[in-house]
Amino acid sequence: MGKLVRDKIPDIIRRDGREPVVTVLDEVAFREALLAKLLEESAELSEAPPAQVPEEIADVLEVLHALARVHGQDWRDIERLADAKRAERGGFHDRVYLG
Fold first, then answer.
1. Quick one: angle between helices 75-89 and 53-70, nearest 10?
2. For a disulfide at 45, which of 5, 56, 68, 97, Cβ 3.0-4.6 Å?
3. What is the pLDDT of residue 2?
4. What is the largest CA-CA distance in the chain?
5. Is the dihedral of CA 62, 63, 64, 65 positive or negative?
6. What is the average pLDDT score of the chain?
């Protein structure tokens, strides 16, 4: 079973003397794979020891950037939207939990 990997991973595998099986996904399959990758990276973040948290956050961020691109969105527009939502509704600084 395959999985979505970063673009340079096949080259890294080749440098180790192995030949990877690579498929380039169409747009629909790529979107689906990105969403699955987001879940995978989020799970890794939730299980990461404190020293690895920054690296796992970076992986989640990379997937979010790719999702924005595949949906035709500019990351700066996403940031502006996040800023506007934060200004209107607040952030998560106060640890507010309903329920």
1. 110
2. 56
3. 87
4. 54
5. positive
6. 96
> Does 1 score more than 80 pLDDT?
no
Distances in Å between the alpha carbon of 63 and those of 16, 53, 74, 88? 26, 16, 14, 26
Which residue matches tokens 């969105």? 73
How many Å apart are CA 80 and CA 94, to the nearest integer?
A: 22
Residue 44 · residue 62 · CB < 8 Å: no
**pLDDT score of 16 more than 90:** yes
Whether residue 66 is predicted with pLDDT greater than 80 in this model: the reply is yes
Count CB neighbours of 59 within 10 A: 19
pTM: 0.89
Q: Which two tokens stand for residue 29?
A: 């399959």
